[in-house]
Amino acid sequence: MSFDVNKFVAQTNQTGLAKENNFYVIVNLPAKFSESNLSRELVFRMDTASMPGRSIQTIDNRHYGPLRRIGHLPTHLEVGTSIILSEDMREKVFFEQWQDLISGDYRAQESKSPEKHSNIGYYDDYVGTVEIVQFNEKSQETHVVKLIEAYPYQVQPLNLSWASEEFHRLNVSFSYRYYTDKTKEYDKGERMRTDSLLTRLNKAGVGGLIGTAAGVLSGRVGPNVTAAAGAANKVLSAIYK
């Protein structure tokens, strides 16, 4: 069968195309973590993220003939994000404080006591949830992924160089037990409903920060973040449309 360009165009016009820059991330802290406005501000700081992937573990089985690989347990792959840092690197400290709930707070105490390195936290005290939301060109949420029992598994080192004028991005990988996802379908021309972008951001406590976020982003980090500022403005326009 020959490839029909008109059918291809009609099909993509009907379903649309998912774009990498139409997303935002909400980090919900564990109950043990002291409340922090920074967790709400991260919605405008996380400029890259990944949707979770998974693989299936297999067992080799053969009674006769070619080998069968029988699937059983899933393995959920870590989710990577990057965060644009403030001058005082408060975002880096934030994730390190979260990790302190896991491995002890010897980092902040400046203690040489080896006992401080062994204060392992309780699992329920350091796991939270992370929501990754994809929206379409009409600012409607189309796909929502929620990482269950998530925590910052890895905080990557930051490179320093006198030859560079780039601003810092902190790479953070999240481990989690499993994820749930939900796809939303809309009729053509339908607007956002009760569980809209604005509603979800306000639930996360971001509503009061929205008015200044895009201006701060573009004013502080300069022309190199045109794309990031544009994405932030997409979120703003979705809220105020």
Beginning-to-end CA distance, first to last residue: 44 Å
Instruction: Report the uncertain regions.
Output: 188-196, 204-225
Give average pLDDT, whole number.
79
Order of helices and strands: HEHEEEEHHHEEEEHHH
Note the overall shape. Answer: globular
Structural class: alpha+beta
CATH topology annotation of the domain at 18-60 and 69-191:
Pnp Oxidase, Chain A
Largest β-sheet summary: 7 strands, antiparallel
Secondary structure: number of strands: 9
Q: What attributes characterize this protein structure?
A:
two-stranded antiparallel ribbon; Pnp Oxidase, Chain A; 9 strands; 241 residues; seven-stranded antiparallel sheet; 8 helices; 30% helix; alpha+beta
